Amino acid sequence: MKYSIALLCLFLLLTRFVLAQQLTLGTTPNVVVKSALLDLNSDKQGLLLPRISNYSVAPLSTAPDGMLIYSVTDKLLYIRKNGIWRKLIDETNSITSVNGQTGPVVSLTTNDISESVNLYYTDTRARSAFSAGTGINLSGAGVISALNTSALWNASQLQGRNISTNAPANNDVLAWDNATSTWLPRSSTAGSVTSVGLALPSIFTVSNSPVTSSGTLTGALASQTLNTVFAAPVAANGIPAFRALDPLDIPTLDVSKITSGILPIARGGTGIGTIGTAGQLVRVNPGATAYEFFTPSYLTANQTITLTGDVTGSGTTSIATTLANAGTAGTYTKVTTDAKGRVTSGTTLAAADIPSGSTNYIQNISSGTQTANFNISGNGGVGGTFNTAGATTLGSTLGVTGNTTLNGTLSLPSLTTGSVLFTGASGLVSQNNANFFWDNTNNRLGLGTNTPNRTLEVGGTVAASGLSGLRLTGMGAATLQSPLTNVLALNASGDVIVTSNPAANNWLLTGNTGNAGTAFLGNTDDKAMVIKSNNLSYLEFARRQTLGLVQGYTDYTDPDEKVTYIRSAMQFEVPATVNFYKPKMWTTSDGNFRMKGPSAGTDYFEFGATGTNNGGGFEFIIGDDGDEPIVFKSYNYIGPVFTEIMRLQNGNAGINMNGTAPTRNLMVNGTFNFSGSVGTSDRLVGRNNSSGDVATIGLGTTLTLSSNVLDANASSAIWNANQLQGVTVSSTAPTSGQVLTYNGSSWAPAAATGSGWSLTGNAGTAPATNFIGTTDAQPFVIRTNNTEVARVATDGSFGIGLAGATPVKRLHVNANNDAIRITNLSGSGTGNPLVINATGDVKQTTALDGVTVGATTKASGAFTTLTVATSPLAFAAATTTVNNLALPANASFIRITGPTSSFTITGITAGLDGQMITLYNTVNNNMTLGNLNAGSSSANQILTMNGGNVNTNGAGTISLIYSSTDTKWIVTAINQ
């Protein structure tokens, strides 16, 4: 029986343990702590752990971590950790007292800490550890500052700029050296020169360069080659130079600008210097060498002209004519004409004049049938019965009052093919081809259209209202039937097709019932599922790639990731008691994702990204009254326990505050240390012993704490220095304009003895000795905005805008694709003009294109004759064609001889922009210029400006000019 009771108790205990997975023993076994597997509670009994004498033997040697035992050998508790038995507490090495106190609670103050350990926790004790040395002041408030009234600082900088450590010589002054960014001791004569040279472009000559003591640098224009001008390169931007004048240098001038001389034929003129008499004309002279005036032969005034033949008459200014008689005047139905078309006789039309045979006209018969086909093109009326045995064609209206029998075909040529006839007003057979049409070829009927695409096509649909041209009368009032599987529908072209009834397969606006378990809303192919409102997308479902959301950023690269794409803000439902700040998620226009909502019903919270223009951040907002906290907690499922870690409240941050609002910007309830912090100290810190507040010992503007070392701030511009780099500075007060000058022992104020050039100009200079420039073999450079704008080279050449390059001529100007302006030049004078060669060099010349400058002699020259022989060029007798004609070098007037038949030129080679030529055909055969003829290369072709070929009627001239923009020769004139 005892065993049975024991077994029953054990069974109940194990049952509870098995069911609850927990065991509670002690005074309150019914109180279960869910987080505890074993709960022991007693005020009289303890837990007796296993007492082990040797834990190195099996199975304890391989016990799992976390096992707890009591060692009887050293009487200590051991725990298994990382596969090793470790002591929990060793009393032999524990602290038995603190500062002589042995109770459970000890009290320590900063006075209990020895001064020798250099630990200071109060402002007073921290400040008392420092004392003010020479030049240092330490205030009672703990602020350390430099005594800038003490003349003891050995300055290594002036206003943040370094001072050289070079020892000064007697009468030296401090001068700024831009190359080393340092104040350097230099002789007080700094600014004088020992050698200055002048470099100018080659169009100038320079004398007295260099000047080593005193003198004047002189530049004069150098002599240039005859007949050159000062100009930019031909047909290009570039540096100007002296060069020969080019035809492209001559601007296009209006003819009114030519006020003297005779324009030769080679230049498009006539070569005639006088005006002929009244009535004369201009022609090519008999020798075909020039133009001349001639008097044509005209009819004399009041000369009589006589006409003879079929038309006779005579007169001077007007002639009355008479037509020769050939018949008798009268009205005839039949006339006879002669070979000249004159009516010679007239008679009355007789029956014999009408051809015989019933097929040639409509018979007037009282019986029988008209056997011939006939057309009625005018209006006709038939009073009785109208019978036809053959085809009948009506070109206009035919009225029949009796019966009409058509045994043949009826042609109505006035009607349109395909029209379906109907009886119109007054019984008139009518048509409406646009709206009632039969397509006999395809057997289609069109109503409202004459281009039916189906067997029956009905037009007349009104797009705005959606009304079609088809009405089924009575269908609007018909009784609706149950939906069938198939329905009639319209495709995009308006065709009526059979399709599945959407009511049987789609989701209805009013909801569906009885759907199968496999029914779903969505797509079965790789297309985005889109939900819209007001035709705007709000929600989309698809693969990331299908939605176009794959990006080259982490977590956005998987094309097959399932994505729900929300394209609107999100707001959540709340209880009716919440009236403010209803929860919402959205993205701002600056690209910041945020969330906001209610807190405690009426307060509000918000957090999310913030910032603009790549200046992003993250913020938390909580409030309404301003004192709501932001609290960070940790969670332990055992208990469960929520432990406050940090709270932000009232503009302060508190750590381990346990629900208490922090009263300082940073408040720590507990301990803290700076172990593991990086960097070096830049403040002295002290702690208020009573309040626990931590304060810094301020540093004045003249002190720095860097690398844990307190230094005077050498960059501060307040030091009252009595030394410069170890050299004493005199205490004598300077006067205006004085400089610091080294007198052999110290820097002292003294009058400036240098002879440099002042920013406001100098007076009393001696041109023979005072100059700006260099005294060694170095160029002289002028800068603005720290950029070189001009340079004088060591050989005296002067360059402008060369960006550091050495000028290659006496004056070398880089115009940077701009013009060079010279103003207020004299309006008169004599001399040689300047010309510019292809490299931009400017030179003087006495002649332009072989014509002496200032000469009044008329231009003269000889023709350039291009002989085009039949044999060498293998011209055909009647179809001679010249492709890609090559001209003699520099020829502008080409005299062509030789062709024995008409010939054609399709193109001319080597054209230069603006080049003008005249082709002079001296033979009597026509010369033709082909318009855009493919026989010549595109760049050699001719554009005649009239869309066709142009030619001379025998001898004549054609002038052309070459356009590089059009890459064509343009015809400008034709003289025949």
Strand content: 25-35%
Radius of gyration: 60 Å
Largest sheet: 6 strands, mixed
State mean pLDDT (0 to 100 scale).
77
- The portion of residues assigned to helices is under 10%
Question: How many helix segments?
Answer: 4
Number of strands: 76
Oligomer: single chain
Shape: flat
Question: What distance separates the N and C termini?
Answer: 154 Å
> Structural class from helices and strands?
mainly beta
Contiguous low-pLDDT stretches (5 residues minimum) are: 1-20, 115-121, 857-877
Strand order of the largest sheet: 67-69-71-75-76-73
Structural features:
4 helices; disordered N terminus; five-stranded mixed β-sheet; 976 residues; flat; single chain; mainly beta; six-stranded mixed β-sheet; 3% helix
Tell me about this structure.
- The chain has 976 residues and is mainly β.
- Helices cover 3% and strands 32% of the residues.
- It is built from four helices and 76 strands.
- The strands form 26 sheets. Strands 67-69-71-75-76-73 form a six-stranded mixed sheet, with no helix packed on it. Strands 9-55-56-58-57 form a five-stranded mixed sheet, with no helix packed on it.
- A hairpin with a 2-residue loop joins β53 and β54 (709-712).
Kindly summarize this structure in a few lines.
The chain is built from 4 helices and 76 strands. The protein has 976 residues and is mainly beta.
Topology record:
Elements: H1 2-20, E1 23-26, E2 38-41, E3 51-52, E4 68-71, E5 76-81, E6 84-87, H2 123-128, E7 136-138, E8 144-146, E9 153-155, E10 157-158, E11 161-163, E12 172-177, E13 182-187, E14 204-207, E15 218-221, E16 228-231, E17 241-244, E18 281-284, E19 291-294, E20 305-307, E21 311-315, E22 322-323, E23 334-337, E24 343-347, E25 374-376, E26 380-382, E27 386-388, E28 392-394, E29 398-400, E30 404-406, E31 410-411, E32 422-423, E33 429-430, E34 436-439, E35 444-447, E36 456-458, E37 486-490, E38 496-500, H3 502-505, E39 529-533, E40 536-543, E41 562-566, E42 570-571, E43 584-587, E44 593-599, E45 603-610, E46 617-623, E47 630-636, E48 641-649, E49 652-655, E50 666-668, E51 684-687, E52 694-697, E53 703-706, E54 709-712, E55 721-724, E56 727-729, E57 738-742, E58 746-751, E59 780-784, E60 787-792, E61 798-800, E62 811-813, E63 834-836, E64 842-844, E65 847-848, E66 851-852, E67 864-867, H4 870-873, E68 880-882, E69 893-897, E70 903-905, E71 916-921, E72 927-929, E73 942-943, E74 950-952, E75 956-963, E76 968-975
Parallel strand pairs: 1-2, 3-4, 9-55, 11-13, 25-28, 26-29, 27-30, 28-31, 35-36, 49-50, 56-58, 61-62, 67-69, 68-70, 69-71, 70-72, 73-76
Antiparallel strand pairs: 4-5, 5-6, 7-8, 10-11, 12-13, 14-15, 16-17, 18-19, 20-21, 21-22, 23-24, 32-33, 34-35, 37-38, 39-40, 40-41, 42-43, 43-44, 44-45, 45-46, 47-48, 48-49, 51-52, 53-54, 55-56, 57-58, 59-60, 60-61, 63-64, 65-66, 71-75, 72-74, 75-76
